[in-house]
Amino acid sequence: MTATAPMYPSVAPVEPPALLLDGIAKTYRSKAGAVDALRGVTYHFARGSFTAVMGPSGSGKSTLLQCAAGLDQPSSGAVVLNGVNLNGLSEVELTKLRRAEMGFVFQAYNLLPSLTVYDNVALPLRLTGKRPARNDVHGVLNQVGLEGKAKRRPSELSGGQQQRVAIARALITRPSVFFADEPTGALDSGTSRQVLALLRDATDRAGQTVVMVTHDPVAAAYAERVLFLSDGLLAGHLDRANPAQIAAAMSDLEK
Ligand SMILES: Nc1ncnc2c1ncn2[C@@H]1O[C@H](COP(=O)(O)OP(=O)(O)OP(=O)(O)O)[C@@H](O)[C@H]1O
């Protein structure tokens, strides 16, 4: 594994990174005491990159994703998305930015059970006040291989199909950054491959940026870079690694 020096560009890049984490730290305080979940993480995620984030349980992966997506605030440091510092935004501005620029794919698909597949996919556009074009909705359903399922309800679909609806819903706004937290955690290996291929495609064909937290070395191998977190800090990275190399690095970290 290669040590990950803070990836703060020494020369100004031609365009800002899709996502910059600038020294983010997060301390959770409760009656039981304080937990330093992140202890100063600096990293830039290049536009069009697919990065997996791995690390032992409790190393701070979910906290990193939550802070990066503006769902939680770091205790210190800054998150900058497409040149916009999230710290300076009001809750309303943050919600707007999230709806316009970010897509979310979680282990739990978070589909609305009473809506059809079509309406679930169209929802993010309706939330931004736009009238979804039928062709766009059918286009993303086609892209995820579910063109025949538009009128179904989520409960009538398999887990893998539901996750593909969730991906279609994330694709419809053409977000610049996708955040995925264990997107294949509940899926069998064949279905996982389809879902990961869709995320890979988002970076390769559409230049979108994917940040994916996973425990699965096979899933992580779809990313060109795997970042390892340990105890709230970046512990290193692997580039274009295969699942065996990723698993070996993980077991070293867990020793
Ligand atoms: N809301 C919270 N309040 C207090 N402590 C928290 C909270 N959320 C997370 N933590 C603590 O912060 C640390 C990092 O947690 P986090 O969930 O980010 O780790 P993780 O790497 O995603 O773990 P896992 O792989 O088990 O999901 C852990 O010690 C955890 O117990």
UniProtKB/TrEMBL annotation:
InterPro entries: AAA+_ATPase, ABC_transporter-like_ATP-bd, ABC_transporter-like_CS, ABC_transpr_LolD-like, MacB-like_ATP-bd, P-loop_NTPase. The keyword Transport applies. GO terms for cellular component: membrane protein complex; plasma membrane. One of its GO terms (molecular function) is ATP hydrolysis activity. The keyword Transport applies. It comes from the Bacteria. Residues 19-254 form the ABC transporter domain. Keywords: ATP-binding, Nucleotide-binding, Transport. PANTHER family: ABC TRANSPORTER RELATED, IMPORT ATP-BINDING PROTEIN. This is Putative ABC transport system ATP-binding protein.
